[in-house]
């Protein structure tokens, strides 16, 4: 297994590190982004932990290629804000369309160059979806009719078995969000794309744990580890 560190948009105000983890055998390509919104720090910590664990050998990618961009929106992260404009509304909306922000364009181009089969976009949200269907906390989100849905249901089932407090259980939501990384990846790259949302009201260490476990479940779903 080989781990290399790179910089996206180097020498620009949008420069941000990313990692490429090459498995021991050929296999699928999984693209993981976090920090599209700069105030969702637990998801960023989970993505960075995965990169660090791969670099130190604590986690091994058996097959395929794993690309991790732990803090996409560095400017928003420095201010601990969601970001203006909202980067998750600036990814390509149409088959022939372009991204509306240079950072979204660079991230999307990186995924396209490596022909991503999977795209996990890690986020955080308000509320517990077990208590209200109107909130996004503790959900996995796919586009309607996505071929990723069966894998999401299996991951949710495994996660919920490990969570003793029922209010914290995960749910599946399905909707398109034009301009989001998830919908762009599904439409333009035909990737199995998922948005992961943990709930802000939970302890940060708990959110990091949930994000980490979900990513590991999807790596196994993809046959990569």
Automatic annotation (TrEMBL):
Keywords carried by this UniProt record: Hydrolase, Metal-binding, Zinc
Cofactor(s) named in the record: Zn(2+)
SUPFAM superfamilies noted in UniProt: Zn-dependent exopeptidases
Gene3D superfamilies reported in the protein's UniProt record: Zn peptidases
Residues annotated as domain Succinylglutamate desuccinylase/Aspartoacylase catalytic: 26-131
Domain of life: Bacteria
InterPro entries to which the protein is assigned, alphabetical: AstE_AspA_cat, N-alpha-Ac-DABA_deacetylase
Xref: PANTHER family: BLL3975 PROTEIN
Full protein name: Deacylase
Biological source species: Paenibacillus xylanexedens
């Amino acid at each position: 297994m080989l781990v290399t560190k790179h910089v996206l948009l180097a020498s620009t105000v949008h420069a941000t590190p990313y990692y490429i983890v090459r498995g021991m055998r050929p296999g699928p390509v999984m693209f993981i982004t976090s920090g599209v919104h700069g105030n969702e720090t637990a998801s960023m910590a989970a993505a960075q932990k995965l990169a660090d664990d791969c670099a130190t050998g604590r986690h091994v990618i058996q097959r395929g290629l794993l690309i991790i961009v732990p803090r996409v929106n560095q400017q928003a992260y420095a201010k601990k804000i969601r970001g203006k404009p909202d980067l998750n509304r600036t990814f390509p909306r149409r088959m022939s369309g372009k991204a509306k922000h240079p950072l979204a364009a660079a991230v999307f181009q990186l995924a396209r160059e490596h022909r991503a089969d999977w795209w996990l976009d890690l986020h955080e949200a308000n509320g517990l979806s077990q208590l209200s269907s109107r909130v996004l906390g503790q959900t996995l989100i796919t586009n309607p009719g996505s071929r990723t849905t069966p894998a999401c249901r299996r991951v949710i089932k495994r996660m919920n078995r490990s969570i003793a407090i029922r209010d914290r259980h995960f749910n599946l939501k399905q909707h398109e969000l034009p301009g989001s990384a998830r919908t762009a990846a599904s439409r333009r790259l035909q990737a199995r794309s998922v948005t992961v949302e943990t709930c802000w009201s939970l302890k940060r260490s708990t959110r990091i744990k949930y994000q980490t476990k979900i990513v590991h479940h999807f790596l196994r779903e993809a046959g990569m580890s």
